[in-house]
Design brief:
By secondary structure, the chain is α+β, with helices and mostly antiparallel strands. About 25% of the residues lie in helices and about 20% in strands. The chain contains 16 helices and 19 strands. The protein has helices at about 5-15, 50-60, 115-125, 170-175, 185-190, 250-255, 270-275, 310-315, 320-330, 335-340, 370-380, 400-415, 425-435, 455, 475-490, 490-510; strands at about 30-35, 65, 75, 80-85, 90-95, 150-155, 160-165, 205-210, 215-220, 240-245, 260-265, 290-305, 345, 395, 420-425, 440-445, 510-525, 530, 545. Strands 11, 12, 13, 16 and 17 form a five-stranded antiparallel sheet that branches. A four-stranded mixed sheet has the order 1-10-9-8, sandwiched between helices. The chain has a four-stranded antiparallel sheet with strand order 4-5-7-6, covered by helices on one side. A hairpin with a 2-residue loop joins strand 6 and strand 7.
Length: about 550
């Protein structure tokens, strides 16, 4: 097994390799270090379905387009693009100065120039469900005679065409996902399944080594194609290391001791210790690091199975809309966020679409506030005055959310609604919800791409689980009609209006119980400058500088 000593030698080798002729190590080498508590399973962009994988993949690979920190789609390897008037054919015009990283898979180990054929190869690979879970995102691709039965055609080295079966206004947003990064055929031919730990991309950092469960090292790509506003070549950092310490107290001490430059996520540190009740950094720690908080495109909620063909629903009072609404009114979301999350996030008083997306508007999409009087009125309307005769309900969740579930349980009990909490393993909960085995369940949804369609797709009747993501088996003809119109609509204001109407339908039918809209939370060393933050929680280290 490779030891920690190897990693120290590797980094030292990198420094020595970059020395001046007098063989003295430069003292301005900069390495960004962060910890990933949940580990890393693959560096193949085809497997970039969670943040643990997405973050390092984002440093190694590029796609046609990318998101900036304002969630605006910008050019990347594609310097420009166009769309036909019928919305069925995209043309991407590629830069001619982008090269794959040097690697043994290439002739003489020298990375070659990226061409449109590389994107065709990379995208076709995603149709293999054994390789990637992105296949559902490709259902809109037209693989008919029109596109030579491929859907993607390289007209020449710098022109790529993509054909769609029907207009899909969110398609460009989907292409910002790391699934759609460009990879070289030579690397797959050489490494096959081991490409997951031998990645070859075009990104700002190149792969050096990975001791699974211990350390990942990426080095600066000296030939990276992007530059800053002063035409300085990016990135500024010399290297990136990722550690995989699972214990949050240990990782927090490493941050305090200067060994880590960042911890990310409210679960990565003790929020009660580090933050005050207003969610701000305690004075004690301000000399060491600063706090980054940013709206996160993520909604935490309690889902309700509403498929009246399912015996679980037939025999449950949750089949009644009045009961579902009563639960929504029966607890104080503001207190939940303030006392159990140290004001990280915002209480969900609007719809399912979170703060940070353009259609979010609590003045237009009216959700639920704490209202005990309304609870009693709705219970009586459902035939359970004062809760008499109302069966005990069961909410399924994981240990991470036990405290939140207990808070909701207590408040519901005060309002004559009794619930029992069932703690499950994450894998068990996920499978059971997919298979419609639970009537009431705690989940969260974060955006795969920055478009409201990603949230509304959970309620489209053609997306019933387990094949799709409609875990509730919600079926509303009006909703489906609006959703299908929105898919084709390119006018931004019209799309916003459509999404708001859909969101209100979901709330009015009480298919879910929105809890809060989450926030990205990071503790960052004061030595780090230029670390952007965005509502997709993407980590972009291209423009980061570190003071020694």
């Amino acid at each position: 097994m490779i030891t920690i000593r190897f990693w120290l030698v590797s980094i030292l080798f990198f420094f020595l390799f970059s020395c001046n002729n007098d063989d003295k190590i430069k003292d301005d080498r900069t390495i960004f270090n962060y910890n990933e508590m949940n580990g890393l399973s693959s560096l193949d962009p085809a497997a970039a379905s969670n943040f643990e994988n997405i973050w390092p993949v984002n440093q190694i690979f590029n796609g046609l387009v990318q998101l900036d920190d304002s969630m605006v789609i910008r050019p990347c390897i594609a310097k420009s693009y166009s769309l036909t008037e019928d919305g069925l054919e995209y043309s991407f015009y590629l830069r001619n100065d982008v090269y794959f990283h040097d690697n043994l898979c290439f002739k003489k180990g020298k990375g070659r120039k990226v061409t449109a054929k590389d994107f065709v190869f990379s995208f076709e690979r995603l149709f293999d469900s054994k390789v990637s879970s992105a296949i559902s995102l490709l259902e809109v691709i037209d693989r008919s005679e029109k596109s030579n039965y491929k859907g993607f055609i390289a007209i020449n080295d710098t022109l790529l065409k993509i054909y769609l079966k029907k207009p899909f206004s969110s398609f460009l947003s989907i292409l910002t996902m790391k699934f759609f990064s460009v990879i070289p055929r030579e690397a797959i031919e050489m490494y096959s399944l081991d490409f997951r730990k031998n990645p070859v991309g075009t990104g700002a950092f190149t792969f050096k080594a990975w001791d699974e469960g211990t350390k990942l090292i990426l080095l600066k790509n000296q030939n990276y194609f992007e530059r800053d506003s002063n035409q300085n070549r990016l990135p500024y950092l010399d290297a990136l290391t990722v550690s995989f310490i699972k214990d949050r107290e240990t990782s927090f001490m490493e941050l305090l001791n200067g060994k880590f430059d960042m911890l990310s996520g409210a679960d990565a540190f003790n929020t009660n210790e580090v933050l005050d009740k207003q969610g701000e950094l305690r004075e004690l720690y301000k000399k060491k690091f600063y706090l980054q908080k940013q709206t996160f495109l993520k909604t935490d909620y309690i889902g309700i199975l509403v498929d009246e063909k399912n015996p679980i629903v037939i025999n449950s009072p949750l089949k009644l809309k009045a009961i579902r609404k009563a639960i929504n009114y029966a607890f104080d979301r503001n207190k939940l966020v303030k006392y159990l999350r140290n004001n990280i996030g915002e209480a969900a008083h609007a719809g399912f679409i979170p703060k940070g997306l353009k259609s979010y508007n609590p003045n237009l999409v009216k959700g639920y506030d704490y209202n005990p009087e309304m609870v009693q009125k709705l219970l009586a309307e459902a035939g359970y005055r004062d809760g008499v005769g109302l069966p005990e309900l069961v909410i399924h969740t994981t240990d991470v959310y036990k405290e939140q579930a207990e808070f909701i349980q207590s408040q519901l009990a005060e309002n004559n609604i009794r619930i029992q909490i069932s703690i499950e393993k994450s894998s068990v909960l996920r499978q059971a919800v997919n298979n419609s085995e639970y009537n009431l369940f705690k989940k969260s949804w974060y955006s795969d791409y920055a478009d409201e369609e990603n949230f509304m797709s959970l309620f489209y009747s053609k997306n019933f689980s387990p094949q799709g993501v409609n875990f509730f088996h919600y079926n509303n003809v009006r909703f489906d009609s609006l959703y299908e119109i929105a898919l084709k609509e390119n006018d931004e204001l019209k799309k916003i209006n459509l999404y708001q109407k859909m969101d209100q339908l979901i709330i009015d039918d009480a298919v879910i119980i929105p809890l809060y809209y989450d926030e990205v939370v990071r503790l960052v060393s004061n030595k780090i400058k230029g670390l952007g933050n965005n509502s997709m929680n993407l980590l972009n280290l291209k423009t980061v500088k570190k003071q020694n």
